Amino acid sequence: MIPEHAADLPAESAEELLPLLAEPSGGVPPVLTSTKELGEATAALAIGHGPVAIDAERASGYRYGQRAFLVQLRRQGAGSFLIDPQALPDLSQLNQALADIEWVLHAATQDLPCLAELGMTPTRLFDTELAARLLNWPKVGLGAVVERVLGLRLAKEHSAVDWSTRPLPEPWLRYAALDVEVLVKIRDRMTIELQASGKAEWAAEEFDHARRFIPAQRAEPWRRLSGIHSVRRPRNLAVARSLWESREQLARDRDVSPGRLLPDSAIVGAAKSVPSSPGELLGSKSFNGRAAKSEITRWYSAVEAGLAVDESELPAVTVRTNNPPPPRLWAEKDPQAAARLGAAKLVIADLVEEYDLPPENLLTPDFLRRLCWRPPEEISEQSVATSLSALGARNWQLSLVAGPLTEALRNPGLSD
């Protein structure tokens, strides 16, 4: 339990009073690297009971892509297991053994894509972060949830290390094992709170939606370069695109995070200045990074390739989309739409207070903007629900917002 006087102290001091969860209950398990060990772990997990806690560690910022470098599992009656997916890249047998078991993850959409690459996809899911959001807890990180639910502190110092390191240091493995140590206990407590608050069915629908998560594929991923908005000419954008593509290929070949080779600021700076020689490129103030000098021939070739792009193939400065304009422009572009959005936001604010939910979990803000910018021709509760459903809103959300939003769209407080 949390010490009685902890609530009267500043948050940092209160946290320090909580006991530290420092050691897995069964000790730090060995890292499994052989098919024999995987088979034994699979058999043990299959005969365990209750939900299975799962986590994965990636090497974001160190390696190319978002693949897993460690997978952790724990199930009552079986214990905890740490699996090296570099040695065991096919975990489909494990997936089969857990096919009908509820998986418990924290922030599941972060880990599900890399688990799917290993052949692991859940049929049932409980997401402790999503549950915390639906319960409208002020902090939803795993450490904060553990503190709130169990009155324990969870060590956090190894969360951003390079998990592709081999062998993995023992303190990192302890940290990884502790991440699944408490997930099922948290799930059990949260289930009670969700039921008591009338949100259990909402949570089940959200969990099923998260289970089906697929990362979005962008048509022009190079446009995600930080600062690319400051490049305002098609030819300069072609240089940026060419540099991004060259960096991407080198990063893939070396299995290194692209930003560690050449930061976005170097690409954007080169695209804006368009250097006329390798020396001028290397001498640019913004052109730095681990591979800036060693790969200068590659980078300058990319600049030249961008400059040589045919006029007909130059990228557009402004990409046409079906997205609504920024809300700050609505009053000028479409006063009626601005009025609808204002009325709709008041409705959402009232519902958020009534149901004790974060606004973004009650309804995705982008869905609300799209509805208000281009509402159905015939505004009715059914047409509003249909429009929101087509965007991705869940049934529980529609049951709460469709009726009130219909009234807001019909009577936004601005005459024609």
UniProtKB/TrEMBL annotation:
Chain ranges of the 3'-5' exonuclease domain: 29-195
Organism (species): Saxibacter everestensis
Official protein name in the record: HRDC domain-containing protein
Tree of life domain: Bacteria
Domain HRDC: 233-313
